[in-house]
Amino acid sequence: MADKPNPQKSVKIAAGAVVCVESEIRGDVTIGPRTVVHPKARIIAEAGPIVIGEGNLIEEQALIINGYPENITPESEVEPKTMTIGMNNVFEVGCVSQALKIGDNNVIESKADVGRNVILTSGCIIGAFCQVNTCEVIPENTVIYGSGCMRRVQTERPQDHRSSSDRLHTRRVSPPGPEEVQRRA
């Protein structure tokens, strides 16, 4: 009886990412630059690797899990599927995301739950407490909201969550320019 090879499990954190020590990261996980992982956030790669792109925000108690489907056990010989998360997504407090493919500029609000068979394109918002556990591709700029998980399409592209925080950060860190010094004088 041959032993199954045990693939190397590793966590790779890019320069410029901020990962709090109180977060839990297990399995083969890659975290891109400028991504922030808050305390008590959990990123679990059981059924395959997780690749998280640049500029994502993963808040407290958010759970991102690449788990096994209900009908498959960890002992089964299945090809691992990579979970891919794009850029500038926000995973708010207490949300759960099992989606294997997430594009860019999405928001999964507090306590929302996105299932494994959902593909989240770009610019989407999954509202607080909404559960989306269907086998579907959510079209770009879709907003799912309310107790009935109603849907609509945004007419404008959502604002990048990083733009306002970057401006604030730049203001605090950068020395004042010549015109700002003259105004203060």
From TrEMBL:
GO molecular function ontology, one term from the record: dynein complex binding
The keyword S-adenosyl-L-methionine is annotated on this UniProt entry: no
GO process annotations (BP): mitotic spindle organization
InterPro entries hit by this protein: DCTN6 (IPR027777), Trimer_LpxA-like_sf (IPR011004)
Biased composition (Basic and acidic residues): 155-168
Keywords attached to this entry: Cytoplasm, Cytoskeleton, Kinetochore
Name used for this protein in its record: Dynactin subunit 6
Organism: Gasterosteus aculeatus aculeatus
Taxonomy of the source species: Eukaryota, Metazoa, Chordata, Craniata, Vertebrata
